[in-house]
Amino acid sequence: MISQKREPIESLPVWLKRPIGKASELSTVQRIIKQRQIHTICEEGRCPNRGECYAQKTATFLLMGPTCTRACGFCQVDKGHAPMPLDPEEPQKVAESVKLLGLRYVVLTSVARDDLPDGGAGWFVRTIAQIRTLNPGTQVEVLTPDFWGGREGTIAPEDLQHQRIATVVAGLPACYNHNIETVRRLQGPVRRGAKYERSLRVLQIVKDLNPAIPTKSGLMLGHGETPAEVVEAMADLRAVGCDRLTLGQYLRPSLEHLPVQKYWTPEEFDQMGAIAREMGFSHVRSGPLVRSSYHAGEEEG
């Protein structure tokens, strides 16, 4: 059981400290998204790699507002409040931002919007279409929630989930990402409101609908998992045809979030990455500062 005792945050190991990037690159992106009142997970989650990604012309946009209807124990995105109404101009604003920034590869993610009839699936497709209209050469990856949940007396949750995923798959993203986040044993305390098998099912449905779309998932290490449990999770992902994998270190955003149980070393990440490649993942990013969208536009790694 993961303790939620409020203790001081430890000093980070040296391998987790890095410069944030050039101020000019950060300020350009921040200015554009602020002017349009849109969001990126790079900023909302204070990603340590945002300077590097901006310099490489990649960014991850956070759709449907900054407030999530779930309350995961690891996540820094705002939660626990009524989500904002959708901004009908958001897809266009995101597409304009992609053009202004000259982005060649874009990742679209979102907060969980369990309050919406389709969970936000149609919003992903609408945004993909707008980006392609203004930026025909830009590839779009999606990082979606599990699209679980139905309304009482309507359609079964499993069928509704399938419909929502099918909506996004029909938009033909360059890659479909859904993170399992942690190993099976730790799903409860880490991912409140989500289920391990349910997340594996997302990736399986994508492959069933369109085997040509690469699928991707990721885990944050440091919640108390064992190496054997990580290997088991990777095997579970391969069993549903997952093609790409990211492994990174969990960093505690605040004292209100789950404490770090262990800082995995760069050597341990290298070992896990090697095992993942042996399992057949075509694209593996494994390192302390790796995040879901890190080097997302690179097909091999």
Q: Which keywords apply here?
A:
301 residues; alpha/beta; TIM Barrel; eight-stranded mixed beta sheet; two-stranded parallel ribbon; 10 helices
Structure description:
This protein is α/β, with parallel strands linked by helices and 301 residues long. It has one domain: Aldolase class I (TIM Barrel, Alpha-Beta Barrel), CATH 3.20.20. Helix content is 36%, strand content 14%. The chain has an 8-stranded mixed beta sheet. The chain has a two-stranded parallel ribbon with strand order 3-4. Helix 5 runs parallel beside helix 6 and helix 6 packs across helix 8. It is globular.
CATH topology grouping: TIM Barrel
Give the SSE string.
HEHHEEEHEHEHEHHEHEHE
Q: Kindly provide the name of the CATH class.
A: Alpha Beta
Structural class by secondary-structure content: alpha/beta
The biggest sheet, with number of strands, parallel, antiparallel or mixed sense and barrel status, is: 8 strands, mixed
Quaternary state reads single chain
Mean pLDDT: 83
Dominant shape? globular
**Total DSSP E strands:** 10
Second-tier CATH architecture: Alpha-Beta Barrel
**Rg from Cα:** 18 Å
Give the N-terminus to C-terminus distance in angstroms. 34 Å
Strand content: 5-15%
Weakly predicted, low-confidence segments: 1-9
Into how many domains do the coordinates divide? 1
User: What's the name of the CATH homologous superfamily?
Assistant: Aldolase class I
Helix content: 25-40%
The side-by-side strand order for the widest beta sheet comes to: 1-2-5-6-7-8-9-10
Note the total helix count: 10
